[in-house]
Specification:
By secondary structure, the protein is mainly beta. The protein is built from 1 helix and 7 strands, in the order ββββαβββ. The chain has one domain. It starts with a strand and ends with a strand. The structure holds zinc ion (ZN).
Amino acid sequence: MGFIEEFKHAYAGDETHHYHVARKQVTCLHCGGEDFDRGSALLNTTGLTFLRLDWVNREAHLLICAGCGEIRLFLEKPDRV
Ligand SMILES: [Zn+2]
């Protein structure tokens, strides 16, 4: 079983937005882009235990960079700005 059991986009289409997490603008670590598509993933128990995060909610929030496709993963829900 993989770390990410289910992956889905929150919205249809290719609309992208800027997001904040912990009141800070999310930027792509790879290309520096600030436009992201939002999705979510269910993390399976094996992956969470491996990361010693089995105390957290099993849903993670994903932001997919519109520029390069890098996926950023957050346990806190990103705020759209
Ligand atoms: Zn990028």
